[in-house]
Amino acid sequence: MERKRIAVVGVGLIGGSLALQLNEKGLASRIIGVEASDTHAKQALELGLVDEILTMDAAIAASDVVILAIPVDSIVEILPSILDKIDQQILIDLGSTKSALVANVDGHPKRKRYVPAHPMWGTEYSGPAAAVRGAFENKAVVICNPEAADADAVEWTRNMFRKIGMHLIEMDAHDHDLHAAYVSHISHITSFALANTVLEKEREDQAIFEMASAGFESTVRLAKSNPNMWVPILMQNRENVLDVLNEHIAQLRKFKSCLEKENWEYLRELMEDANRIRRILG
Amino acid sequence: MERKRIAVVGVGLIGGSLALQLNEKGLASRIIGVEASDTHAKQALELGLVDEILTMDAAIAASDVVILAIPVDSIVEILPSILDKIDQQILIDLGSTKSALVANVDGHPKRKRYVPAHPMWGTEYSGPAAAVRGAFENKAVVICNPEAADADAVEWTRNMFRKIGMHLIEMDAHDHDLHAAYVSHISHITSFALANTVLEKEREDQAIFEMASAGFESTVRLAKSNPNMWVPILMQNRENVLDVLNEHIAQLRKFKSCLEKENWEYLRELMEDANRIRRILG
To answer: Would you tell me which CATH number, out of the four given (1.10.3660.10, 3.90.220.20, 1.10.10.10, 3.30.420.10), belongs to the domain B176-281?
Structure first.
């Protein structure tokens, strides 16, 4: 692959980690950062994530590829104006929702330069200092509605994700948002809610966390996630997330009912059903 | 510490991991396994977890210390009969609940030889092959009602846990069960229920797990846990677990209400509240 000049808009956890991989795999001749936060811009330069920081317009003009790694409310807002400014560049976004983004540029004359993508990797941390080397290796990436973009743009995007070690899944944006609600968004809500459950109790009982173990940490670590990222995701995927949340509360009520009625046979059945997740997680 | 002959009853995940540590730290002159399952008994010998397998009675007679690492329904059932057979041995259990166990030997003439303990470590796997070297290091262990046991028994137990790298917490059995409901038992229920939520959907949509990422795995991995261990824990800690489960469902309903009413300000507040868990998890 010929090296390209790549603009990364938002050099935080996701954008910063991608910049590291683009460099390591020799995909970029130059990486230009665009950053709303001066502190993050400075950090991104110091950490060597980007070669320079430019304004959005200067970055678009100086790049072959523009990659958006900012919260999804910002993506949906600026997508049309970025497409307005694009000539033959490829535009990729890495947001955790897809339907609202795609809908907002439907019919745009430059729509075919845009490839919506979602790499299935993240941590509960944010900012340039949270960037991780080798982050995306052996993870899945979803490319949405590839038929709606130019073949060269989709092909370059596929190759980029393959080179940084990801395996490709392609699907419609609506399917993506439904699946993401089940295998990502609901996990964040349960973690946030579990954290609040225990923190509420801690007000009257200071010693409660002394016993916290790896199992607890595992189920609650996503509660450290950044609201700036997660409020917009849940806003945009509201209906799917509500469906899954209702189903999850219904499942929890089954456990509650078993405990209330001391129905231990059914409790065992529910756990055995859940054990089938071994098939998926290994 | 003088090396002792130690009987480990139940050489699975917990008993097997403890046996490895007792050997490594030079705490045992001999480790005797007691195992209901012939397969597990054979594995425990092959893996070198124990020096020999004996029947319960022979093991008690041949030991200075007896450690119970079996499901809590079995512990509560056999505790009195084991105390009946004990002379000056120390009896320790490692169960995840404490109140029912302690209550069941209240007033027993040998009660003072019994030290109830709960090492805050485990994984979602079980059996001798799941035993982990160095498992308990830097983890917490709760010793309950130390004033109810002989000083020599408590002191030896404290030293054993310190030698294998654990830090001690001491509290009343009822406080233990309340805290365990919050920082361990509820996490297992949320994981079981989350697994069932997604597995239910998978029936109609096979592709749903293709996108599963580390965040999902983290919140759902406890759903692989063994019902033989977890049904009895929830049975014995039923009232505390019901309280926490009700609170957790109430917390989830707050998220649901935000989504239904599109109250994004309050959703942000809930997430910011949950972010305070950073103080605990680091």
So the answer is: 1.10.3660.10
